[in-house]
Amino acid sequence: MKWFLFIILLFSQPWLMAQEMLGLSQSNYSGVHSILSNPAMLTNTRSYFDVNFIGLDFFAQNNFIYIPGNDYNVWKAMRQEELPTYGDDNHNFLYYKNQRNKFAITNLRILGPSAMIQLGDHAFALSTTVRVYVSGNAIPWEVPVLGAEGMDYKPLLNINFEDDDVDFTTAEWAETSLSYAYNIHKRMDNKITIGITLKKLWGISGGYAFVNNIDYILLNDSTINIKNLNGEIGFSAPVDYNTSEIPDDGPIVKGSGLGIDIGAVFIKQKYVGTKKLKRLCGQRYEDYIYRVGISILDIGRLKYKYNAQRHSYDDVSVFWQDFDTINYNSINQSVAELSELFYGDPTASYRGDVIKIGLPTAISIQGDYHFKDNFYFGAFWIQPIRFNMRTMRRPAQLAFIPRYESKYIDVNLPISLYEYRYPRIGLSARFYFLTIGTERLGTWIGLADLNGLDFYFSLKFSIGKGSCKKKIGDGACSNSEFGYSDKELEMFRKRK
Questions:
Q1: Which of 253, 202, 297, 287 is nearest to 483 (CA)?
Q2: What string of DSSP letters covers 42-65?
Q3: Is residue 496 part of a domain?
Q4: Mean pLDDT of 413-433
Q5: H-helix or E-strand spanning residue 22
C-alpha cells in the first residue's frame, strides 16, 4: 500500500512541532502580534500604532529520532560540522526505544506586512501571513522503527499489529486577515474587551491520509498481509499527476476558505479615569493588576477543488507479495494500482474531485499578573479542538512566562509543557523594534537532546500611547509611559 509505505518513509525523517511564539504574542508591546493568541488584546497594548515589516516562526520537534546533546548541537550545525554516526549502519541519529504512539506537527509561519491602530475604545488590524502546517497523530510506534531499521527488521516480523485512528494532514496557504477589538464594558476599575479576526485563505496545496483501523502482519521485507483496512486519502497539489512534473498547468491557487478567531479579555485596572480622546497620540495606556483572556483560534477550513482527488478504502484486505519491487512513476499510476490491488478495479477507490481540510482549531486561555514595576508573570494554555480526521491538529501546551518589559527592552523566560509531557525552557528578547526568541533553549546550548529546533523573530515599528510632543500650555501627554499628566494622576483612584 503506497500511502502506508509513504508514512513509513515520512517518519524516518525529523519532523516539526508547532509553537506559539510566547515571547512575541504575550507582551504589552506585542502590538499587531497580540492577535496571534487573542484578537481582543488589540486595545490593551502599549502602542496605538504598530507595523510589522517581516517575521518568521519556525519550530522543529519530533519524538522519535534524536542526537544526544553532548554529541551535537545547533552551533555545531551552523558551523557545518559533520554529524556523528551510530551503530553498524552508521546512522546519524538514535531513536527512542519505547512503544508510545508518535506524533508530528509542522508550523512554519511567515509574518508579512501587517499593521494595527487604536482609536479610543476601538482597534483595527490588517495582517498578511503565509503558513505551512503538517500534523500526524497516533502514528503506530512500529512504523518509524521500520522506517529506520528497514522492512527486514526481524524483531517486528510475524507480529499481528492492530492500529486505530491514525491520521496525517498537511496544508500550505496564504491568508489575509482583518481584526477588530472593542472595549465593550468599562466600570470603575473593571474592563472587558471583545475581539474578532476574519481571515480569507488561499490554498496552495493540501492533503491527508487517515486510517480508522488496520490489522496487518509484516511477514518479511517483501510480503505484508493486510487483513483489514478502513481509510481514506485526499490530495491537491501543483503537480501533474500523470508526468510528475512541477508545477502543473492549472492555477497556482488550488483552493480557498475562510477562518475566524474570536476572543475576550477581562482586565482589573490599576487606575480609574474618564479622560476623553483628543488626539491619537494622547491615548493612555491603562495599566492593570491582572488580566485574563479566552479565545478560540483558527475556526474554519480550506476547500480544494483544483487538481484534487479523494480515494477511500473500505473494509479491504490483501495478501501483498513483492511490494518492495513495485515502482510507481506517477501519482495517478500509484492510486490506480492501489485500487486494483484492493478492489480489482483501477477506479473503484475514487470518491470525488474535491477535498476539505480543517484549520488547526484550538481554545486558549491567557493570564497575566503585573507583579511589580516592570516585572510580570504570565500563564498560557492551549488545547486542540478537532472535528474530524481531516482537520490539522494543534498541539496542547501549558506555559508560565515570567518577564521583564520596558519601552526599549523585553526579556521573557517561558517555561512550557508540550502535550503535557515534554518540558521546555525558552528565552526571548525585544530590543525596541527587533524581537528574537526560542522556546527550546536547551537545544541551542547543548543541554538537551537535539531532536528539533526552534526560532522566531519579528522586525516592526511602533508608536506608543502618550507619545505626543508637548505643546505650550498642554501637559496632557507629559507622562510618556501612561499618557497621564501629574495633575490627572492625582484625580485617579489607585487601587491598593
A1: 287
A2: GGGSSEEEEEEEEEEEEEEE-SSE
A3: no
A4: 90
A5: helix 22-25
Length of the chain: 496
Domain-located, residue 359: yes
**Pairing state of beta strands 223-236 and 308-321?**
antiparallel
- Tell me whether residue 258 is in a domain: yes
Looking at this protein, which amino acid is placed at residue 8?
I
* pLDDT surpassing 50 at residue 81: yes
| Residue type (1 letter), 18 | A
- Containing domain of residue 29, as a range? 2-491
Distance CA 384, CA 450 (A): 26
Longest alpha-carbon distance in the chain: 90
Percent of the chain with pLDDT over 90: 59
CA-CA distance, 282 to 10, in Å (whole number)?
A: 55
- What is the DSSP secondary structure assignment for residue 391, as one 8-state letter? B
Q: Which three cell numbers stand for residue 77?
A: 550545525
Cα gap 488→116, rounded to integer Å: 28
CB count in 10 Å sphere of residue 339: 20
Instruction: In whole angstroms, give the CA distance from residue 298 to residue 201.
Output: 11
Q: Are 235 and 211 in contact (CB under 8 A)?
A: no
Which amino acid would we find at residue 129?
A: T
The predicted-structure confidence for 261-302, as pLDDT tens digits, reads as follows 999 999 999 877 666 667 888 888 889 999 999 999 999 999
Tens of pLDDT, residue by residue over 104-146, are 777 889 999 999 999 999 999 999 999 998 888 888 999 888 8
Three-class SS of 182-224: EEEEEECCEEEEEEEEEEEEEEEEEEEEEEEEEEEEEEECCEE
Q: What is the dihedral of CA 157, 160, 161, 162, to 10 degrees?
A: 170
**467-484 mean pLDDT:** 52
Contact 336, 388 (CB under 8 A): no
Amino acid at 370: H
Q: Which grid coordinates are listed for 188?
A: 470603575
Q: What is the pLDDT of residues 181-202, one digit of tens each?
A: 999 998 888 999 999 999 999 9
Radius of gyration over every alpha carbon of the chain, rounded to an integer in angstroms: 26
pLDDT of residue 203: 97
Counted domains in the chain: 1
Q: How far is CA 461 from CA 33, 51, 118, 145, in A?
A: 12, 5, 15, 48
C-alpha cell at 211: 486510517
Highest mean pLDDT among 119-133, 442-456, 467-481, 482-496: 119-133
Write out the H or E segment, with its range, that includes residue 443: helix 441-445
3-state secondary structure of 78: helix
Q: Is residue 310 part of a domain?
A: yes
- Do 490 and 475 form a contact (C-beta atoms < 8 A)? no
Residue among 64, 62, 31 nearest 48 (CA): 31
